[in-house]
Amino acid sequence: MKRVIIFLLLLLGLCSPSFAELNADQMGDFELPSETGVVESVQYVDAPSFQQGDNNLKQVVKVKVLSGQFKGAEQVLDNMLTGNPAYDIPLKKGDRVVLHVESAGGEISSVDDVKFYIADLKRDNMLVYVAAAFFLLLVLVGKKKGVASLISIIAFVGLVFFVLVPLVLHGFCPIASAVLISIISSAITIYLVGGFNAKSTSALWGTVFSLFIAAALSMGVIWGARLTGFAGEETMFLYSAHPDLNFKGILSASMIIAALGALMDTSVSIASTINEIYETDKSLSVKKLFISGMNVGRDIIGTMSNTLILVYLGSSLPLVLLSSNIDIQKFFNLNQVATEVLSALIGSIAILACVPITAIIAAYLIKHQKEKVEFKFDTPEL
C-alpha cells in the first residue's frame, strides 16, 4: 500500500505543472491580469435604459489602482445600476474593488493603453480571515490530528486545482479524473490521521469501493433521467468558454466528489470501531467483528445520510422556495431540481453500500493482520 501512495504522489507531481501552462495558453491576447483598487468618490447620474421610457442610474466612480504595473493611477469609471441585485455592484467611498484590465492592442507603454472595468467587490480578505480562524481552531482543538486534517485539506484543494482542473480541461474523462483525485485524497487523509495499519487500509478500501459505486450510479441516473449537466449559471459560463467539455461527465464528477467526505467519515468510523472491539476481545471471529461493525454502521447511516440531504437542501433553498409558485410535478421535473435530488440520493446510497463493504474488509484485515503480527512477535527465535 505504501508503494501505491508513493505512485499516486508522483502522479500528482507530474500533473501539477500543466495547470500554469493551461492558464497561460487560454488567457486572451488582450486580457491582462486583474488588479485591485479603492473607490475615492462616487456620483450618481441618470442613464438611459435599453427599454424606451425607462431610466437607470449609474455611478461615476473615481478609483485609485492599488496593485500591478499601474499602481497609483486614478481612473474614472462608469458603474451601471439596473435595479437587479443579482448583477448590480453598488459602491461607496472606501470600497475595495477588483478591476478587469484589457489592452486596446499593441504595445502597452502607459495607463492610457489599457481599459479598466469594475469586475466585483474585493472579498478575498474576508475569506482569508475566516479560513485563518478555522485553521487555528482546527489545530488548537485537534492537536496532531488537527494538523493532519489541515494537511489533508490543503492536499485535496491542491489535487482539485492542479490535477482535476487540468485533466478535465485537457479532455480527460471527468469521471475517471474525479475518482483518481478522490482515491489520492482519501489515501492521504486516512493514512495521515490513522497511520499505516490495518484499520486505515480497511477504511481506504471501503471508501474506494463506495466511490466506484457512486460513479456507476451517477452515470446511470444521468443517462436514465437525461440530465443535461447544465444545472446552474456557472455551467453556462463554463460552456461559453469551453463548449467542447463533457458536461454530463462533469456533473457525474461533482456527484462523486460531493459524496467523498461522508464516505471517508463512515468508513473510518466503522474501521476504528472494529479495531477497538478487537483490541478489547481478541478472541472474536471475523463474523462477530463484522456484525459489530454493522451495528455501529446502522447508527451512522442515519446521521450521514441526513448530512448529505441537508447539505443539498440548504444549498438549494431558493429552489425549495420557488416550489410554492410552480406546479409540483413541473417542479420535480426541472433539470436543476432533479439534479440536486439525485445527487443527494446517490451520495446516500453510496453511504449505505459503504457500511457493509467497510465492515467486512475491516473485520477480515484487522483480525488476520494483527494475528499475523502477534504470531511473528511471540514466536521464539531458534
Description:
- This protein is α+β, with helices and mostly antiparallel strands.
- Helices cover 65% and strands 14% of the residues.
- It is built from eleven helices and five strands.
- Strands 3-2-1-4-5 form a five-stranded antiparallel beta sheet, with no helix packed on it.
- Strand 2 and strand 3 form a beta hairpin.
- Helix 2 crosses helix 3, helix 4 packs parallel to helix 7 and helix 5 packs antiparallel against helix 7.
- It starts with a helix and ends with a helix.
- The C terminus is likely disordered.
What is the topology?
Elements: H1 2-15, H2 17-26, E1 31-48, E2 55-65, E3 74-81, E4 96-103, E5 114-121, H3 124-169, H4 174-194, H5 198-224, H6 233-241, H7 247-280, H8 286-315, H9 317-322, H10 328-333, H11 335-378
Antiparallel strand pairs: 1-2, 1-4, 2-3, 4-5
Helix pairs in contact: 2-3, 3-4, 4-5, 4-7, 5-7, 5-11, 7-8, 7-11, 8-11
For this entry, give a set of tags.
alpha+beta; 14% strand; 382 residues; five-stranded antiparallel β-sheet; elongated; 65% helix
